Amino acid sequence: MEKEKSSLKSTIAVSLTNYLDAGAIVAGASGLTLWKNYLGLTEGHLGWLNAISANCLGAAIGAIIGGFLADRYGRKAIYTYNMLVYMTGVALIMCSVNFGMLLMGFLITGISVGVGVPASWTYISESSETSNRGRNIGISQMAWGIGPTIILILGTLLAPPTSGAGSEGMLFGAVQSLASLFGVSGEGASLNVFSSRIVFASLFIVAFIAWLLQRRLEESKEWQNMRTSTQATGGSRSTFSSFGSLFTNHMNVRTILFLAGMYLTWNLVSSVMGFFQQHIYETAGGLSNEYANMLSVGQWIIIIATTFVFSLIVDKVNQRWLYFVGVSFAVLAWLLILTVGINSITGLIIFTLLWGLQGGISVQSFYALWASELFPAKYRAAAQGVMFFIVRGLSAAWSLGFVYIYGEHGEGFNRAAYIMLTLLLISLIIGTAGAPDTRGKSLDQITRERYGE
């Protein structure tokens, strides 16, 4: 019981990484139109912001670096320094006055997010009891839902008035008062974007709290045992030498193809929804910034509730069929929106509901669980880093193409939606067909079954 309490406590501390990951993506999405108006950006500029952010390439670069470092120097090393990098990136966004500063802030924040992801999923898995591994991964994913919910509520309350649609947020008066302290007064894009600066300031505060908590975590016992065993047998201390077997071992290659395949096809859709959802609702759907944020808040509340249910049942039910149910909600969501159209408020509400349900039983939850189970400890984090690099890197390329498919005002939405639906169907097939039988087994047992002694 004491160990279970300890694993839950460490899970909560590490889960702040997920809060900040999703929070950074949604904070950018929430204020995307505001930054576009303030800096005079085009859809191409927005594509680049998404491409190098925590949603795509920035996280991809960080993940492959963080995976190597976590296996070479331990999981705790990541938690000692990484949040300082995150705070630097967020501070740069808060102070941005041109596109270059904004782009660099998104990149640094994204790299920090990527560095933390392999270490966090690995640490949670290694510190969990066999019967609660899925539960703890589910709890960490709840933080991934709580972050956007809080950010979107804050964005809704601080939202500036939108010309021709909707009203200003309840706390926009406070934005005006605070902005005046920094010499920003009157009306216009300079004042409106101050709402987004405050949202990012909230992430800076949470990152500081996360840094204080995470730097006190103990090192993973499984990593320590692996390191001791390697030294005792005279094995190489180089992470790169053991990492090389990722691409020469048949089992590793099959595992990478399976995990990257199911996660990539889902993430290409999810990355667009994470960064462009409010923008799509505002341009193609005709909603105001306030109402777009409000609808997204409802979605994330559904995600949190569904993720809670996921955490309660994932260690007790057939994971293959749970995966099938989760991705089926995503497929139904895009079938619906293609049928009724993006301009239907009823369609948008039901779409948001279905997308929220899939978000709670999401591919990312299963990826986080299975990726931390299916590789040996000596390169568990590095393997996740490589796959995360592949997935988020290709998502970056897709985001650059998406903005041109979508168009300046959403005229290409239907064409993009058909692509989304196809990708989700592929993810559904790959994940359901290849789901591993790891429930109720220890990490050592899984490793022995797959790799021998």
Major pleated sheet: none
Q: Helix/strand-derived class?
A: mainly alpha
Average pLDDT level: 84
Total beta strands: 0
Number of helices: 20
**Stretches with pLDDT under 50, minimum 5 residues:** none
Measured by DSSP, the beta-strand proportion falls in: under 5%
**From the alpha-carbon coordinates, what is the Rg to the nearest angstrom?**
21 Å
Helix and strand sequence = HHHHHHHHHHHHHHHHHHHH
What's the helical proportion of residues? over 70%
Q: In whole angstroms, how far apart are the ends?
A: 30 Å
Shape: globular
Overview of this protein structure:
This protein is mostly helical. It is built from 20 helices and no strands. It is globular, with a radius of gyration of 21 Å.
Secondary-structure map with pairings?
Layout: H1 2-30, H2 32-39, H3 43-51, H4 57-73, H5 75-94, H6 99-127, H7 133-158, H8 172-181, H9 189-192, H10 194-214, H11 221-232, H12 239-243, H13 250-283, H14 289-313, H15 319-340, H16 345-360, H17 363-373, H18 380-406, H19 413-434, H20 443-451
Helix pairs in contact: 1-6, 1-7, 1-10, 1-13, 3-6, 3-18, 4-5, 4-6, 4-18, 5-6, 5-10, 6-7, 6-17, 6-18, 7-10, 7-14, 7-17, 13-14, 13-17, 13-18, 13-19, 14-16, 15-16, 15-19
